[in-house]
Structure formats: structure tokens, C-alpha cells
Amino acid sequence: MAVRMAARKDAATITPPEPDLTSEEMLHRAVAMRPVLRERQDKTEAHGSILPETNDEFVKAGFYRIIQPRMFGGYEFDMVTFVKVMMEISRGCPSSGWVLALTAGHPLILSVFGDEAQFDAYGDDGEFRCPAVGTPAMMTKVEDGWRCKGAWDYASGCDTATHLLGGAMRIGPDGQPVHMHVLLKRDEFSIVSNWNMIGMQGTGSKRAIADNILLPTHRVVDWTIWQAPPARDMKTRLLRNPIYHGRKSTFLIGEATAVAIGIARGALDLFEEILAKPQRFGGGTSTRVELQEYQEYYGLARAWIDTAENAMLQVARDYTEHCRAWAEDGVPFSDEADRSMILVEQHCVKLAWEATDLLFTSAGTSSGRKDSKIARHFRDLAVLRTHGTMRYMRTAPNLSRVHFGMAPLSPL
Predict the structure, then answer these.
(1) pTM over 0.70
(2) What is the CATH number of the domain that holds 210?
(3) DSSP-derived 3-state class of residue 64
(4) Could you report the per-residue pLDDT of 170-221, keeping only the tens digit for each?
(5) Domain boundary at 193, 226, 259, which?
(6) CA distances from 167 to 244, 283, 318, 319 (A)
(7) Which CATH number fits the domain that encloses residue 380?
């Protein structure tokens, strides 16, 4: 491996499939895909995971490579581009957007591993689709590396994954647990179908199992995603883009936030179509578009969604600047800055939910049918909000504690 790595470092590594692709064209592809994704919602939900044809189209469009390092066949676009694409895809299909966001964003987690793991993961073609799950498996040190045994629930995108990044734990010399992260290849974990939810049914967020797998040392690292990455000398780093060297929490929670905003925007699209349908009022026929009550519903929901989207995009810009300032100027990317941006993201999700709730409850009883798409957006966002990272009432006091010099009560 050492010889192969040295040769690869001196070479041009992996050329992206479309070297001249721009972020504008990437976003245009996402927008163009929305109608077909909406038509596939029922089929996706029935399938229980992202459809093979949808995954193939995502691969061809380059969506999984948005923030992947360019030297490893990615496009290395910024967080703003990533967020915009995820919003558009989720606007068309919430489940497909969730799977894409929670696999395509994880080159940032991989960047914490050493150079050998980067070459190992991206291989010769740069194909990397990777769920990241936190429930820790147990690790045992052996002569040839590490033995990994455990299971990870809610592994979104595991059906189409090339790899899996899993939380892990070992017992340190003092008898205390040490948090770790491990990189598994697809043939090193099995999948158990245990995803049976009222919403997000098409994500296939199933259980991944590692049954005493032997992992080489370079695919194991002491670290948890809620902490700052291990310090390294920038001059010796293989990946030079600052986005790979900042804290990870804001970006990772931004994945789900972008999906939530896209779901709400999709609900607004559907609500507009409902308002345009002829209705019987007072013996005549007209549309709800003409009624002030429904104009208020639409206007208020749109304002909440616009506010959430603009706030999320500003977080993406702020996050990028924090990464740059840390990598280039040595300005610490503080825990307080991270938590502050996370709290904004959580409130973006709250606004998206309030908008979707208003649209669903104002659309009429027929919108509660099992085959109703606006009901699906409502259900999917309801389930998204159960994610442990969405607890703003936990993050708010922790942000305050950090600001006033006290230790936080929990990782978020």
C-alpha cells in the first residue's frame, strides 16, 4: 500500500467524470429532476428505499461527488452548492433527498482519517456513497488491526452504499470508553430490514451489522463527530481545502436541515396546486386562490420557508468562513461558533415544520388520504424532526453555558 500511495500522490489521482462541470449546472440538474422525483414518490415509498433508477441518475448527475475532494474524482464544490442541491432534490422526493444528503455529505467525515484511508476508500474510480451512523460498535485491538463487532440502526442509504462510517468504542487503559470512528467497505457489513415508520418510508434506514470484522489500522480513528477533528499540520495535509479541516457538526446537521426545507418547499408547491383546483362555494364554482384566508395561509408559509432557506444558506457561508479562518489564519473554530450555527439550523427545521403543518391542515380533509403527496411531506417531516440532532431546547442552554464559560451538558 505504501508504494501504491506514493505513486498515486505523484500522479493526477482520479479525474472527475466531468472535469468542466460547474456548480450552476449541478443545481440546474437538481431542479430539472424534481418532476420525475415527485412522480416516483409512491413507488419509492413502496420500494422501501431509494429506487435503483433514481440512484443511477444521482450517480450520473454527479450529486454524490459535490463535496468529494477533486483529487479523488469529486467536484469539491462548497457547502452552499451542497445545500441548494439537497433542497431541490428533497422538494421533489423527501426520501430520495434524505438518502442523497446523508450519503453525499460524508467525505467530510472521511477527511478526518489519514491519507491511506482516503486512497483506500476512493479506490480507482472515486465511487463513494457512505451512510454515517453513531451508535457505537465495540472494538478490540489485535495484532493485525482491530476487531469490530456491533450494529448500527438507522443507516440511511445502506442499500446503495459503497462504504459505511460507524461510531465505535474501545476501553482505554484507565477503564474509560474512548470514542472512535471506523470505515467499513460494503462487503464488511450485512443489512437487516427493520425500518417500518409512518414517514420517510422510502429511505431504507435499516440496521447495518458488523460481525467481528477485522479492520486495518488505517480505517480506524479515535474521534467523535461532535468534537473538533484532531489537529494536523496544514503543510503536510493531503486535502488542502479548508472545508475538510473544520468542525463537522454544523455541516452534518445542515444535511438534514436542507432536506427539511426542501420538504416544506415541496409542500408549498402541492398546496398551490390544491388552491388552483375548482371548488364549490355558495352555489358557485371558484378556486381558493381567490379567498383571502387561503392567500394568508400561502403567504405566511412561504415567508417561513423563505426565512429558513435564507438562514440555512447564511449558515453555509458562515461555516465555510470559519473553516477558512481556522485553516489559513489560525483563528480557532470554536465550540461556541459551532453550536450557534447548529441552533440556527434547528430553528430552520422548526420553521419548515410550522409551514408544512399549516399547509397540510389548511389544505382540506381530502389531503389526509393515504395517497396524498402533501400528507407524505407532512409525515416525512414529522419523522425527520424526531432525529436526535433536532433538539433545540437542548442546544440552546448548552450554547449559553459555553458562552458563559461553563461546560456543556451534552455533545449538542
Answers:
(1) yes
(2) 2.40.110.10
(3) helix
(4) 999 999 999 999 999 999 999 999 999 999 999 999 999 999 999 999 999 9
(5) 226
(6) 19, 62, 27, 24
(7) 1.20.140.10
